């Protein structure tokens, strides 16, 4: 294991990670007699799989549960419910010692490379440390360190310097080198480029793609920025308040979002083409993201949903009042929609999924109404 090599035994397309009904609730119980702590439903019944060598993107606003999901998958957090099968092994309740051994095959890259790199360690030591911990033969370590540094675009003399001597982009290269030290099968990348300048972001994303092509590593790529996720992902899950509301291939999601929340998120993402960007129309959602301690009844997106209002206005359906008195279709207020297959490669959790014209009928952010912001 001296070079980043494609894994001969791993056939692309096979399931590497299988997550079923994964749930993480924080809080609950009581600290003082008679005083109950509210439960935060950070991740609330999430199912998906990641194939070997694929990039699975997870997007959503802050607080939607993305980071918690990433940490659960790596068993940095214990799930409340559900099942995680990694590389054929059920790791849901695996004891700590065995989970540590598993880290060889699943690693994490953080948003803030500086915060996650030990400032007192030289770069060479940072990269070699996981090899030492996992018992890689001493005689192979130096060659592998040099090889990984080359692969991530770090000069060999960087090994003798400290993290603070590097720029943000270079530090993220160090973080990636450390994560790849043991040739893992899965990398969980939590907002790996959001702290970087846009020009540097593209370099790091290209580096990740390059590493993936060479090694066959799969990525669980978490980001709030849809442009970034689009650049790198094969399939994308859109999260809202602890749930996946849409799961689709990149092509399908961007060409034809079926969940009103996905459509709104996509409409807010900048478009590289200037002409298209000028005529972009951002969809306005009602209110703020809800609270993970006080979930709305029925579909948790209904208080913000433009489609529910369109359907209610059309009439002919039983309606019900939302908490704020808005009249909406009864299923939206009362029944929690399951994530269901909706065409090839696309799953959506919505009682009334969008068609194209409906996304165009959604209310626009002020200033976008005429279809152009000059
Ligand atoms: N250790 C914890 N204790 C209590 N609540 C938590 C804890 N960690 C996360 N949460 C809550 O769980 C919910 C989901 O948080 P999480 O960080 O997973 O979301 P996120 O989508 O990654 O957001 P961000 O992009 O801001 O990190 C939030 O309401 C958050 O406040």
From TrEMBL:
Cell compartments where the protein resides: Cell inner membrane
Coiled-coil boundaries: none
Pfam family, one: oligo_HPY
GO molecular function, one term: ATP binding
Keywords for the protein's UniProt record, in alphabetical order: ATP-binding, Nucleotide-binding, Transport
UniProt main location, coarse: membrane
Cross-referenced PANTHER family: D,D-DIPEPTIDE TRANSPORT ATP-BINDING PROTEIN DDPF-RELATED, TRANSPORT ATP-BINDING PROTEIN
Record family assignment: Belongs to the ABC transporter superfamily.
Protein name, UniProt field: ATP-binding cassette domain-containing protein
């Amino acid at each position: 294991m001296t070079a980043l090599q494609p894994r001969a035994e791993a056939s692309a397309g096979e399931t590497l990670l299988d997550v079923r009904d994964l749930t993480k609730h924080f809080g609950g119980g009581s600290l003082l007699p008679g005083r109950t702590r509210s439960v935060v439903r950070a991740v609330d019944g999430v199912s998906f799989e990641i194939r070997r060598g694929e990039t699975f993107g997870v997007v959503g606003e802050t607080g939607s549960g993305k980071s918690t999901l990433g940490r659960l998958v790596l068993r940095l957090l214990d799930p409340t419910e559900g099942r995680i099968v990694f590389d054929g092994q059920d790791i849901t309740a695996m004891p700590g010692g065995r989970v540590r051994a598993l880290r060889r095959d699943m690693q994490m890259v953080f948003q803030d490379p500086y915060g996650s790199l030990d400032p007192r360690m030289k770069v060479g030591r940072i990269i070699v440390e996981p090899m030492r911990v996992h018992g890689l033969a001493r005689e192979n370590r130096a060659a592998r360190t040099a090889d990984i540094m080359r692969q991530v675009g770090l000069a060999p003399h960087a090994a003798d310097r400290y993290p603070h001597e590097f720029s943000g982009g270079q530090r993220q290269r160090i973080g990636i080198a450390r994560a790849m030290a043991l040739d893992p099968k899965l990398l969980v990348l939590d907002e790996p480029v959001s702290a970087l300048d846009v020009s540097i972001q593209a370099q790091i994303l290209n580096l990740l793609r390059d590493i993936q092509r060479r090694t066959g590593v799969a990525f669980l790529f978490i980001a709030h920025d849809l442009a970034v996720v689009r650049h790198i992902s094969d399939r994308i899950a859109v999260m809202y308040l602890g749930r996946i509301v849409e799961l689709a291939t990149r092509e399908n999601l961007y060409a034809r979002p079926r969940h009103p929340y996905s459509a709104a998120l996509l409409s807010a993402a900048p478009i590289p083409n200037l002409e298209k960007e000028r005529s972009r129309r951002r969809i306005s959602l009602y209110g703020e993201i809800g609270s993970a301690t006080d979930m709305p009844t029925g579909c948790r997106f209904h208080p913000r949903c433009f489609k529910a209002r369109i359907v209610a206005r059309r009439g002919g359906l039983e309606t019900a009042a939302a908490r704020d008195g808005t009249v909406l279709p009864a299923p939206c207020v009362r029944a929690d929609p399951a994530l269901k297959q909706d065409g090839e490669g696309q799953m959506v959790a919505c009682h009334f999924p969008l068609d194209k014209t409906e996304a165009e009928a959604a209310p626009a952010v002020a200033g976008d109404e005429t279809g152009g912001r000059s």
